[in-house]
Amino acid sequence: MSYGEATTSAPQAERDGRVSSNERLSLGVAARLSRYLQVLTQAKKMGKETISSQELSDYTHVNSTQIRRDLSGFGKFGKRGVGYNVEALVSQIRKILRTAGQHNIALIGAGHLGKAIASSEIFADHGFRVVSIFDVDDAKVGTPIGNQVVRHISDLRQVVEDEDIVVGVLAVPNQAAQGLADELVEAGVKIIFNYSESLLDVPPEVTVHTSSPAVDLLYALYFYLT
Amino acid sequence: MSYGEATTSAPQAERDGRVSSNERLSLGVAARLSRYLQVLTQAKKMGKETISSQELSDYTHVNSTQIRRDLSGFGKFGKRGVGYNVEALVSQIRKILRTAGQHNIALIGAGHLGKAIASSEIFADHGFRVVSIFDVDDAKVGTPIGNQVVRHISDLRQVVEDEDIVVGVLAVPNQAAQGLADELVEAGVKIIFNYSESLLDVPPEVTVHTSSPAVDLLYALYFYLT
DNA sequence: TAGATTGTTAATCGATTAACAATC
DNA sequence: TAGATTGTTAATCGATTAACAATC
Predict the structure, then answer these.
(1) Residues of A40-52 as b/e, b for ≥16 C-beta within 10 angstroms?
(2) Which CATH entry fits the domain spanning B103-215: 3.40.30.120, 3.40.50.720, 3.40.50.1820, 3.20.20.80?
(3) How are strands ordered across the β-sheet holding A191-194?
(4) Where are the domains of chain B?
(5) Phi, then psi, of A86 in degrees rounded to 5
(6) Among the four residues A65, A183, A193, B49, which has the most C-beta atoms within 10 Å?
(7) Main-chain phi, psi angles of B58, to 5 degrees
């Protein structure tokens, strides 16, 4: 069989650059599926049973054709004239993203932001469980936040190991961020979500995502002003 | 002159789909420039004088060729063998995004999250000034946060008008979000930054940006797991 | 049936990347 | 000079969009 024939007989999804079930998603597809999931999770909470690609588009700012295209690469999840079943689509996307399970995260920082994060459902709704909150301030250690008790940062390494933690969330002041990022890295965390503005230097095997509300605003403002 | 000639003689930037100084940026370019600006602002704070496209790439996860391409569409800002002057590039990008000025924002919610936002420099660093903090809780009204005093939500409309506020930041619980979004819309705000998880319904002339740390994590986790 | 919305095609546009001459 | 990094080209890949038949 020639390579030409092999290419021609590949499924449409693959010829288009989309993935088969055992291939890695492209960056763009994975990012968009995650956003659909967020909206769907919230829609489910609000008791919505079905949702159309147009509604998903309104909430995610992703073109509705693009949404249908993204989803149809993995199966025919929708019903013509009706839309997508919210609950079914949530579990389909969770499967595709292979994040159907529960993931443990460590939260660093027991200040206002740390408290806000620990008591919100932002992470819990997506299967992320804050298993422990850490701070360097001895005065805060031992105080309760949500259903946790603040622990000293020196316990970090042990907890990361015991609880199989891959994700660390940094909710600390700028000056403390790099030092605590270093501790997270040493403890074995692979993904850091950075709520500070500091530019964090980490080894290549660790990924940093920085929260940047101001970036979104700058960008929104540009389109408002022009 | 034929249309063909007109097209051929257009500057490279325009033929490529990039903009001339009086045209609107594409969505992608505006979003990326905003991210460069965030990193540059922080780099400037850290006393960095020059930065290479590779360094910018490391922090933004945008390909370095793409960064050079984005910037060269507006001028020759870099110095070969050296990189870009941080301070000069900041002001260039601010000019391009037309957000060189100061913008007033209203913050809704004086809970943990509201306090965290008001006392951080996340917004201030990018020219956004929190001119007023609002809450519905009479017990919180009058208490100081940062250099502000919490006001009752009933003052919102007046403040938005007086201070020429275009952006509202919602730092409130899910259940309260839609109601307060309605108040922001009625008061005349055009851009809402939503820290709650609620799906907000707003008129078409208003833009909602929802904070979604969990989306970023889901996405990062996918690439870690595969 | 009539209306709505999916799934899919095809065409176009923008993003990505490697490569490298120019030049600091 | 030697090394580094920009600015730019050209080729490829993925995203976007309009359009519409299929079908619920």
Answers:
(1) bbbbbeeebebbb
(2) 3.40.50.720
(3) A144-145, A148-152, A128-135, A103-108, A167-170, A191-194, A207-210
(4) 10-96, 103-215
(5) -60, -50
(6) A193
(7) -60, -40
CA angle B42/B44/B46 to nearest 5° reads 75
Q: pLDDT tens digits, residue range B43-67? A: 999 999 999 999 999 999 999 999 9
Closest nucleotide (C1' vs CA) to B27 is C14
CB contacts, 8 Å: A166 with chain B:
221, 224
In terms of Cα–Cα distance, which of A205, A173, A174, A202 is closest to A190? A205
Between helix A64-72 and helix A27-45 the angle, nearest 10°, is: 100
Least confident window among A102-116, B95-109, B144-158: B95-109
Q: Which two tokens stand for residue A39?
A: 């909206």
User: And the tokens for A149?
Assistant: 């008790």
pLDDT digits 0-9 by tens, A84-124: 999 999 999 999 988 878 899 999 999 999 999 999 888 98
Count, residues in chain A: 226
User: Would the CATH topology of B10-96 be identical to that of B103-215?
Assistant: no
- Identify the residue whose Cα has the smallest distance to the C1' of D19: A65
Q: Give the count of beta carbons closer than 10 Å to the beta carbon of residue A139.
A: 9
Determine the distance from the C-alpha atom of residue B3 to the mean position of all C-alpha atoms in its chain, rounded to a whole number.
38
Among residues B41, A191, B62, B223, the alpha carbon closest in space to that of A181 is found at A191
List Cβ neighbours of A14 (8 Å cut-off, separation of 6 or more): A20, A23
Smallest CA–C1' separation from A26, nucleotide: D14
Q: Is A216 close to B209, i.e. CB distance below 8 A? A: yes
pLDDT at B18: 36
Whole-model pTM?
0.89
Decide if A199 and B59 are in contact by the 8 Å CB cutoff. yes
Average pLDDT over residues B100-106: 89
- Specify the amino acid at residue A183: E
Q: What are phi and psi of A151, to 5 degrees?
A: -110, 160
Nucleic strand D interface residues, CB < 7 Å: A 17, 26-29, 62-63, 65-66, 69, 79-82; B 12, 52-54, 64-65, 68-69, 71-72, 76-84
Q: How far is CA A9 from the centre of its chain?
A: 35
User: Quick check: B177 pLDDT over 70?
Assistant: yes
Q: Which of B27, B23, B29 is nearest to B72 (CA)?
A: B29
Structure tokens at A116: 């806000």
Rounded to an integer, the average pLDDT of B33-38 is 93
- Look at residue B171 in the predicted model and tell me its pLDDT: 96
Low-confidence ranges of chain A (pLDDT < 70): 1-23
